[in-house]
Amino acid sequence: MPSYKLMPRINNESLFKKLHIKEGTEVFDSANKIIDEIKEFITKNMSISACFAKAHINLIGLNEGADKMCIICLVSSKDDIGDFSREMINGGNYLKGYLLYEAANHALFEASDRFSKLVRQEEHKHGRKLSRRYFAGDGDIDLNMQREILGRLKEKEDVVAYINERNVLFPERSLLYVFVAEEAEDGCCIKHDEENECERCKNNNCQYRDEK
């Protein structure tokens, strides 16, 4: 499968909402003054790549059908934004450092939504529909499966991501997840254009979850 390059995108309103930065406050005014500078910095320093590969569902241990396949997806950015952010915070520029770090995370999640939409569209062309996204450690897939999932992806794709001895995925800004694929029935309503799947995600405490 080909690898994809995704330009980072940041929606000010969505980012501020996730960070509970409310219009009319002093924090909002301060953040609004520096957000364009932060977005420009991220555009120049953040390079997001993505790829996906197929495997048998037995890999992830879900009982969704022995004959089904799963789609492994990796969206990752190898950058030094975390270091820049920490330097700013340690230097007393707390808001700018905090906003830089969170904006980079926001850009990664937004890119993941775009990539998921692309994968859904590709599978839809072949008459397959995809489940919600599953992450290792989310309750359905054991966290220890993460290493095996990444290993299977590396068999088919040249990726720099790795998992350390504490089962933490690197680079720091990386998302590894899977879809379950199945044949779409005639007349099936496939949400292949769905850009954000937060409504179906089970992690209600995720700080990046869309507020409905």
Describe this entry's structure for a reader:
The protein has 212 residues and is α+β, with helices and mostly antiparallel strands. The protein has helices at residues 12-18, 26-45, 81-90, 94-125, 145-156, and strands spanning 4-6, 48-56, 69-77, 128-130, 162-163, 169-170, 173-183. The strands form two sheets. Strands 1-2-3-7-4 form a five-stranded antiparallel β-sheet, with helices on both faces. It is elongated. The chain starts with a strand and ends in a 29-residue tail after the last strand.
- Helical residue percent? 25-40%
Radius of gyration, whole Å: 18 Å
How can the largest sheet be summarized? 5 strands, antiparallel
**Count of helix runs:** 5
Order of helices and strands: EHHEEHHEHEEE
**Mean pLDDT across all residues, rounded?**
87
**Segments where pLDDT lies below 50 for 5+ residues?**
none
Distance between the termini: 35 Å
* Overall geometry: elongated
The secondary-structure class comes to alpha+beta
DSSP, total strands: 7
Strand order, biggest sheet?
Answer: 1-2-3-7-4
Note the main attributes of this structure:
single chain, 212 residues, alpha+beta
Describe this structure in a few short sentences:
The chain has 212 residues and is of the alpha+beta class. The protein contains 5 helices and 7 strands. A 5-stranded antiparallel β-sheet has the order 1-2-3-7-4, with helices on both faces. The chain has a two-stranded antiparallel sheet with strand order 5-6.
